[in-house]
Structure formats: structure tokens, C-alpha cells
Amino acid sequence: MSLAGAYAYGYLALALAQQDDEERGWLNDTDPLDVILLGAVFPAKFRGAGEFSNALTAWLEVLRGTHHWASIQRFIAEAVAVSRELGLPVDDPTVLLRLAARIEKAGLDQPRLPAALLPNRALADARFGHGPPPDLELPTPSAKAQREAHRLLSEFDLGPTYENTCAEELATGLSLFINAGLPVCDESSLLLMALYSALAASDDEDLDLLGEQSTDWALGLREDSPLLPVADILLSATPLNLDPLTTVSHLFMLPAFTQSVRSEDRDWHGGPGTLFIKVAFELGHSHVETRRREVFRLGPLAAAEMRSFQRKREEHLGRPPAPDDLLFADNGPLDLAAADRARTALLESAGIHPAWIYASSQNDGLLPRSSGDFLRPRDREDWEKSIDEYIRQHPDEEIDHELEAWKLRSMLGMMTVRTATEDHEYGIQVTALLDSTSPSGEDSLQTIYDFLGRIGPALADAIEEEPHLAVHSATLAADWSGPCLARRVLDSAKNLPTGDSIDDPAATFILAVAFLHGQKQ
After folding, report:
1. Are 42 and 13 in contact (CB under 8 A)?
2. What does pTM read for this prediction?
3. Which runs of consecutive H residues, i.e. helices, occur in 106-185?
4. Maximal C-alpha separation, the chain
5. What letters, b where the CB count within 10 A reaches 16 and e where it falls short, cover 76-112?
6. What is d(CA 293, CA 307) in angstroms, rounded to the nearest whole number?
7. Peptide bond just before 272 cis, omega within 30 deg
8. What is the tens place of the pLDDT at every residue in 216-237?
9. How many Å apart are CA 95 and CA 99, to the nearest integer?
């Protein structure tokens, strides 16, 4: 069976599922990747959303280690492309139908998956289908383990000794259940649900499904997860008639229970429509829209900018931001008009053409990316429509869009340098990016390259007038990255290019930060 064949069978399985109320319910959010799994097991069915999710995760891991992973990559790319071309979510029925014809033309009817890689054989021994081993051996609790278990179940607070550990997470979950009036000291089945609630449950988790979801999560842990022994004991507690105190005493004998929990073990996908975005981002796609949500992948520079904003916000509030804090305002609703005025003033200060400022204002702050394109076709359409409106109102004005894009990149580059003068942690992160990534490898870095190339001659003049600027820059480089970069900064200060190209972006960035910092003094 090829991927194209699996997709065709999966599409048939979806159609048949519409006649089954129970199956139709959990298949409502099916995305293209899910359709392949449905077809790969057809005519067999899954018992529910949790088993389906665990099977897809495990099967993709199997395929990842084979040359067939290239076909998965191509399939994801075709699905994203069809979604963008049609301007519809990737799981929209029209996209799913159009994709059926598209993937065969893309050559995904070859190669065929060998029988050993089809789910029924590849996942025959998977843990999520069988659960804990029938001969599970429970560690004998020590006196200390029994004392700690009694403390956890009576106080639900283990103190700093167990901070950020699995044990603390269980205590947190149990305290939530106690506040809800649940008998956590009498029902061992609640222990697994409490740990799942603290580690992996979503904010909108259906409480009626908590037992089923927590079991599926525990069964779906990866084979290399340190939490497997913990999950096995919690899954076996009720079948073995273990009371909560005995169960937790056994847990305290496991090293993983008193260690921190990996992020991979918190990241669980409980049903269809959840893995496509993760795999697409992993493969380099930056934008995926589904019927439930639209997600953009932050590049490393944008991620650094977000962390910088969070640090400033925390400093302003005097505490970490709370979930219900407004993102940009201290109190009351965000003044959108004021935000628009501030954005307009910033663009005007950079000399951006009024047509671009008008288009941005008309489209909620929309601007082209540094490459000049847009993430979504409809964004380009909205932008061009607004530009046309401005031209009709100002027929005598001319617009050089390449020049405006250059101005925008320069402005954004200047903002990056300015932020680094105020937030050294941000400066360290940007320096590391410039030292390890080419502009073609990270589109957003092109704004910094353009800006550094533009100010190279000005930096050379400034260093000639104030030689101590090079020394100050080298000191900053040593603090941010070490002596190697400090030496490179001194070398760059002597040989700054007079054109737009730069030989050492990281060293030139440090020089620009030091120069701008001196201008602000």
C-alpha cells in the first residue's frame, strides 16, 4: 500500500464513519495526516480518540527511521500547499478532497509501504495496545518512602526538596481534586488522573473524560520515557487492589518519581487533528490553518523578541505575568486607536511611504515580511487592495515597493539593535543566531544583515573618531560570548566594509550595539 492508497482508503473510512454517531464524534477534527492512518488500517477501526492518537504518534516514529519519511514530508508539503492555494483550512472537506488527486500527481502512489511497516504489524507489540506487563514487579517500599507517601497524601505539599519533580506534580493535582471534594485518599484510580491533570491536561479538559484521557496518556508515553515505571504502577493500582498510600509508597521507590518531568511527556495529543501542525512545523512550514485554529511558527529571532517582551513585562509588573493579565495594558481594555497611532508614528519616522502606512492601518497592522511576501494569500490580496485604494485617492504619487521594503527592513534592524542595548539577554541570543545562521536559513535575520550593511561606513567613521568604541565593543563581546568573539570584534573594527556586505555579522552587530548605546548616553 502506498501513501496515496492509504489516503484513498482513509477518505472512504471517513465517509463510512458519518453513518456511525459515536465514531463520527471523535473523527470530526480529522486532518490529512489522520486520514492516512485511517486508510492504513482499513477496514479495521480504532476504539476511540486516545488509541487513535497513540497509534498515529507511534506509527510516525516508526516511519521516521525509514526512507518512507520523505513521502510523509512531501505529503505534508502538498497538504499545506493546497490549503494555501484554496485559502481554506487544511482539514476543510474541500481541501481533503482536492488533496486526494494532488498526492497521486505528486508521485505518492510510489513507493509502496512494505507489510512490516503497516500499522497492524509495525505496532503489534506497542505498549499503548497492551498496557503494563502482566508480571509487573513492584519495588518494596522503604520506611522513608512510606513516610513521604503519608506526607504527600496528608499535606499535599512536599516542600523544596521535591520542587519541580513528578512527586510535586502529583501533589498539585491531588490538591486540586481535594478542593473539588474528591476522595483522593480512598480511590487509587484518582492518582493517575491527578498526575495527568497536573502534567498534560488542557485547560478545557472534559472532566467526564478525565479517566479515559489519563489512561490513554499513560499508555501513550514513549518507549524511552523515564515515567514508564510510574505510569505502570498507577495503571496497575486498581487491578492489583492497591490503596492510595501503598501505591504512592511504591512510587517513591522510583528515581523518576523524584525527578523533573520531560517536556515530551507533557506534550500529549489526545485525538485527531492534533499532530499535523506539530509535524508541519518540525518540517519547516511556518503557518498552518485548521478549522479550529490558525497557528504561526515563531522563528528564533521572533522567539527571542517575545522572551524579551516577557522580561520587560515582568519587570514592569514586579512579578511574573498572571494568566488573566492583559498582554499590553496595565488596566482596562487595550486602546487600539492609540496602538495604531504609535505604529503609524514609528513607520513615519522610518520614512515609509504613506500608501504602505495606510495599507497597514486598514489591515490591523499588517506588513510584508522581510522577504517582501506574506504568510497567507488573502493577506497579500488585502494589502494590494488597500494600496490600490490609496493610489486611486492619490493618483499623482509614485511608490517604489522595493525601496519601501528596504526601509522597513532597515527600521526593523534598527529596532533589533536598540532592543539589544536595553536587554543584554536578548543581545546574547541575537549574537548567537548571527554566529550560527545564514540569512537564507532564517528569513527574519535578513533585516539585521541589511541594517548592518547599511551602517557599516558610519561605524567605521565613529571608530576612527572614538577608538575606545572598539575596546568597549570587545568587552561587551567577551561578556556575551567569550574571548574569541572579542578578538573578532577588534579585527572587524579595523576592517569594516564600505559597501553593503559584511564579513562578520555577529562582530558587526556588537559594534552597532556599543555604538548605539554610546549615542544614548
Report:
1. yes
2. 0.75
3. 119-122, 127-130, 143-155, 166-179
4. 88
5. bebbbebbbeeebbbbbeebbebbeebbbebebeeee
6. 23
7. no
8. 999 999 888 999 999 999 999 9
9. 6
